[in-house]
Amino acid sequence: MKLVTRWIIRLFSKRLIAFVEESEIQLIETLAEKIAEIVLSEFGVKWLKLTLGKPGAVTGSRDVGVIIERGVKQL
């Protein structure tokens, strides 16, 4: 992996981790929307498909989550 790519991934990860840690959002759907807004507005991404899970949120299930697509998909 190129050094520039690693640097971008690290920057991206730090921004999202900081947001999630500071956030008081309880609903996974709301959190997914806010993360998508950050990615689209701050990182120049035109389209994204975000999968966000919350392991252990519901007794008897391994994971619950959402998948959202936002932005304009380029063909």
Detail the topology: elements first, then pairings.
Blueprint: H1 3-22, H2 28-42, E1 47-55, E2 63-71
Antiparallel strand pairs: 1-2
Helix pairs in contact: 1-2
Describe this structure in words.
This protein is α+β, with helices and mostly antiparallel strands. It has a two-stranded antiparallel ribbon. It has one domain: GTP Cyclohydrolase I, domain 2 (2-Layer Sandwich). The model has no long low-confidence stretch (mean pLDDT 90). It contains two helices and two strands. 47% of the residues lie in helices and 24% in strands. It is globular, with a radius of gyration of 14 Å.
Radius of gyration: 14 Å
CATH class: Alpha Beta
Main sheet strand line-up: 1-2
Order of helices and strands: HHEE
Shape, please? globular
Model regions low in confidence, pLDDT < 50 over at least 5 residues: none
Please tell me the overall pLDDT: 90
Helical proportion? 40-55%
Derived from helix and strand composition plus strand pairing, the structural class reads alpha+beta
Question: How many domains comprise the coordinates?
Answer: 1
Would you count the extended β strands for me?
Answer: 2
- What is the CATH architecture assignment? 2-Layer Sandwich
How would you concisely characterize the structure shown here?
The chain is of the alpha+beta class and 75 residues long.
